Amino acid sequence: MNGDVHVHLDLVQPEEQRIRVTMRWIGSTPRQILQFPLWTPGSYTIRDPVQHLHSLQLTAATGVVHLRRLAPHQWLVDDLDPGPLCLSYVVEARDLTVRTAFIDPEFASFSLAAVVMELDGCRWTPHRLTVNCADAWQVHCPLPSDGNGWRAADFDDLLDSPVQAGPFESQLFRVQEHQHELLLIGNPPGGWPTTLKADVERVCEATCRLMDTPPPAGDRYQLVIQMLDSGYGGLEHDHSAVLQFNWSALAKPDGYRQLLQLVGHEYLHQWNVRRLRPREFRPYDYGHPVVSEGLWFAEGITSYFDLVLPLLAGCSDRSTLLKDLSDELSRVLMAPGRRVQSLAASAQEAWVKLYKATAVSADSQISYYRLGAATAFCLDVRLRQRDSSLAEQLRALWMTHGTVGRGFVREDLTLLLKAVDPGLADELDQWLDSPDALPLQDTAALIGARFDPVPLAGPDHGLTLADLNGRVVVRRVALDSPGRAAALVPGDELIAVDGRRVNASADLSLLLKVDRPALVTYARRSCLGTTQLCAVPGVERWCLSWEPAASSEQLFLRDRWFRFL
Questions:
Q1: Is 448 helix (H, G, I), strand (E, B) or coil?
Q2: Whole-angstrom Cα distance, residue 315 to residue 407?
Q3: CA–CA dist 174, 200 (Å, integer)
Q4: Per-residue confidence (pLDDT) for residue 1, from 0 to 100
Q5: Phi then psi dihedrals of residue 297, to 5 deg
Q6: How far apart are CA 436 and CA 272, in angstroms?
Q7: Is 5-134 in CATH node 2.60.40.3650?
Q8: What CATH number matches the domain at 171-268, 1.10.390.10, 3.40.190.10, 1.10.510.10, 3.40.50.2000?
Q9: Cβ–Cβ < 8 Å for 84, 26
Q10: Rounded Cα–Cα distance for residues 32 and 178 (Å)
Q11: Which of 158, 269, 393, 538 could disulfide-pair with 127, CB 3.0 to 4.6 Å?
């Protein structure tokens, strides 16, 4: 055995939905800490994958070694003699997401952050991966292969390399003369779109034009798309991305474009967040949550450009982009949490809020993805007034920080902005630190656009309801809403309106009249009560549209904004 850490994964009994892990290395110190990662980079919350680990055993030349548990995810061993060590354990793999581990008789898909242990003192040691699986299966991993396994430069490199295994083969495509691999998993009822490979290639090419560089991954990039009956999302890596999409969503009019947007989002992450990282993530700390306000830039900027990339790829048009942007900005305007939580706070609180949303979270928090994208829109339009662009600033930050592995902080961005527009740099601080500070309406006006309210078809009562076995139960009460004024709370069961039984959640809008108080009978902890509920006219969403009387100056700036590059 050489000085590498050897990691072997046994997948030969997929019906058990377990991954048997064996790790072998040469111990050189008498004291050794073993740590299972608490989180996966790209998904900023503690998920405790250690809960799926069992049958842990460490063996040395002298036999089985006692492990003392330091924390739920950490073990300590003392008084080790130098020599070969073997760690073995089992991971239950039943969670099919891009950040966890899953295996069944059809295929396997897992993030190695949910499978492999970190060995104290071996983080920067080369790791070698081997996988044993059924004869009919093929294993796909973005690490370099020698035919007998895969080699990672260090532990970080290993964890950043998701594994797919099953009876499927990949397709090759090219991006700026670099060979990439496309892996399609699943069988959508209507089949895979015939143009998917070509359009994926065009979106990836457009991303390279946006960044004005070849793909940082070079010839070693693996794009995995899993088409499932439920689920949506993606997880970026240095040399790969794993996407999940819902086949029923694909069948909708906007579904295919949304899939291409997801492709563009994860592909752009090669630059923004994987290599151009907030300073707090250099290096990653897998044993603790790492707070960083830079997540708004990593995800918000990327979310803005993922709307744009289908247009740059020739897969969409300006009117469609306006619709997509309208939908995204409307969600921000409709979110009551934007008046409570700032963008910087949203990013900093990702670990405890964004990924752990409750029925009432919308009242006090806002996604840094969406508010970050809205901020990116404002920055882009304002920079166009100064003959610059957000893409230009992103490329500049990439050259000064991303290409050399230097983490960035807010001041690095504001310094770039000050060189173009000192006032904009000061405004950005306010946008980041103050709730409800983003001038969306004024920014839209600069390019001759306006937000028009689309009224609700029925009265606005401010209640989100659920039908539970014949009961109509309040799930959420919106801030500053008629439901809040009526002192209704989540968990209340609605019984009647003006003496008429409420049989289903849809009944409430039918029984209420705008600006006419109604007597609502409810049950709370098995006791009946009544309250006055007065519904009001409401807004379903905001629609971004072009101002017919836009000035020549507005039209000129609009045309500049549409160039994006």
A1: coil
A2: 34
A3: 10
A4: 62
A5: -75, -45
A6: 26
A7: yes
A8: 1.10.390.10
A9: yes
A10: 42
A11: 158
